[in-house]
C-alpha cells in the first residue's frame, strides 16, 4: 500500500513516499534516497519492488526546500550535507514511530546522488543496519560549508555495505570504487562491491533507455535483496 507521510524538518515540512508490504507487520524498512530527478516514477517503482520483497520502503523528498516543479538538476545544486542528514534522521524517526515498521531493522539505499547520500547516512546514523550504494558518485566531495566529504567519515559506519557499479562509469569510476573499498577495508567494515562490464552510470534506471542495462540491473536486485534480508533479519 502506497501513501505519503509528512514530517517536520527545521522550519519546513518534508514528504516521504512510502510503500508498505502486504501481510502482517511489523516489517524491516529501507530508506531509499532518490536520484537527481527526485521522487519520480523510477524511485516510486523501486519502493514498490522493495515492498514486494518484504520491506517497508520510504523515499524522503530531499528537494522539499525547493519550489515545486523545479527541474531536478537545478534542485540538486541546492543540497548540502547538513540538511540532507537532517532529512535522513527525520525519516528514520518517522519510520521508528510507525507500528508497521521494525524500528531496529532499518537500512539505507540510494541511486546516483542517492548512493552518495546513502553512504553519508550510514556514516552518521547508527540506526542503519545495512547500506546499499548504487553507482553513488561524489563520495570524495564535500557538500556544504565546513563539511568533510563522506569518505572522511567512513570510520563511523557501523553496518555492512553493498555496492553496485558500472565499469564504464566516470563518477564513480572503477578507480574510485577501489579507493572506497580500500577505505572500508582499512576500518574493517564488511562490504561487497560488484562492478558490471558493459554498464555505466544509472544502469538500473529503466526510464532512461540509454543508460539502462537489464542484465546488470537484475543481477544487482538478485544480490541486494538477500543482502538486506540477511542484515535486517
Can I get a quick summary?
With 233 residues, this protein is an alpha/beta fold. The protein is built from six helices and eight strands, in the order βββαβααβαββαβα.
- Which blocks of ≥5 consecutive residues have pLDDT under 50? none
Which superfamily, in CATH terms, is the homologous superfamily? Answer: Alpha/Beta hydrolase fold, catalytic domain
Average residue pLDDT:
97
The percent range for strand residues is 25-35%
Walk me through what this model shows:
This protein has 233 residues and is α/β, with parallel strands linked by helices. The protein has one domain (2-231): Alpha/Beta hydrolase fold, catalytic domain (Rossmann fold, 3-Layer(aba) Sandwich). It contains six helices and eight strands, in the order βββαβααβαββαβα. Helix 3 (81-96) packs across helix 4 (113-124). The model has no long low-confidence stretch (mean pLDDT 97).
Amino acid at each position: 500500500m502506497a501513501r505519503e507521510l509528512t514530517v517536520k524538518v527545521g522550519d519546513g515540512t518534508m514528504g516521504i513516499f512510502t510503500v508498505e508490504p502486504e501481510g502482517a507487520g511489523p516489517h524491516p524498512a529501507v530508506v531509499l534516497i532518490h536520484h537527481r530527478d527526485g521522487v519520480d516514477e523510477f524511485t516510486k517503482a523501486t519502493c514498490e519492488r522493495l515492498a514486494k520483497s518484504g520491506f517497508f520502503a520510504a523515499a524522503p523528498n530531499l528537494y522539499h526546500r525547493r519550489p515545486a516543479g523545479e527541474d531536478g538538476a537545478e534542485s540538486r545544486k541546492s543540497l548540502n550535507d547538513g540538511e540532507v542528514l537532517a532529512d535522513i534522521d527525520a525519516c528514520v524517526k518517522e519510520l521508528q514511530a510507525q507500528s508497521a515498521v521494525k524500528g531496529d531493522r532499518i537500512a539505507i539505499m540510494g541511486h546516483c546522488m542517492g548512493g552518495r547520500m546513502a553512504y553519508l547516512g550510514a556514516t552518521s546514523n547508527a540506526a542503519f543496519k545495512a547500506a546499499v550504494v548504487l553507482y553513488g558518485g561524489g563520495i570524495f566531495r564535500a557538500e556544504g560549508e565546513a563539511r568533510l566529504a563522506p569518505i572522511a567519515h567512513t570510520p563511523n559506519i557501523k553496518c555492512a555495505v553493498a555496492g553496485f557499479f558500472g565499469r564504464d562509469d566516470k563518477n564513480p569510476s572503477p578507480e574510485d570504487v577501489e579507493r572506497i573499498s580500500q577505505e572500508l577495508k582499512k576500518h574493517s567494515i564488511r562490504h561487497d562491491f560488484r562492478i558490471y562490464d558493459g554498464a555505466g552510470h544509472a544502469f538500473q534506471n529503466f526510464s532512461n533507455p540509454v543508460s539502462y542495462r537489464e542484465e546488470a540491473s537484475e543481477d544487482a536486485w538478485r544480490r541486494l535483496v538477500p543482502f538486506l534480508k540477511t542484515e535486517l533479519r
